[in-house]
Amino acid sequence: MRRVVVLLAVLCVCDGVKFGQLCGGNSDNSRRGSDSWGQGHYGAGRGTRDHKGLDIVCSDGSVVYAPFDVTLNRKVIVYTDPAKAAINNGINLSGGGLCFKLFYIQPDRTSGSVRKGERIGVMLPMQSVYPGITSHVHVQMCDRSDPTPYF
Asked: By three-state DSSP, how is residue 148 classified?
């Protein structure tokens, strides 16, 4: 009888990946805390569901930057509710071994590659839909896992 031994080494290129600055005016990626609309941490209650992202503070109209070298994969539509049309854009990105989405931004373009720190879009007018909320970019991993360790 012949024995075959197969060794498999798996290297996750996402180990050690950290998000650089996402939003102009928030160089340390401060997170949305508690406000009259809820909380911005992963797993926060949203009625009958849990928040599947992490909210990074970003003032309406601010420039949004690539957090590391990324590929722009496609535009994301956030809501089906026409009352939220003013903030109904985002983008799907990949890089550093990660796949993630950024909600509430108007992307400059939706394909190609962008280097860390380059502009990828502008924060949409969140206050027009949710008056009094802490305006923010919502970061959601494509597999809906917790993005917090990358910040």
From this structure: helix
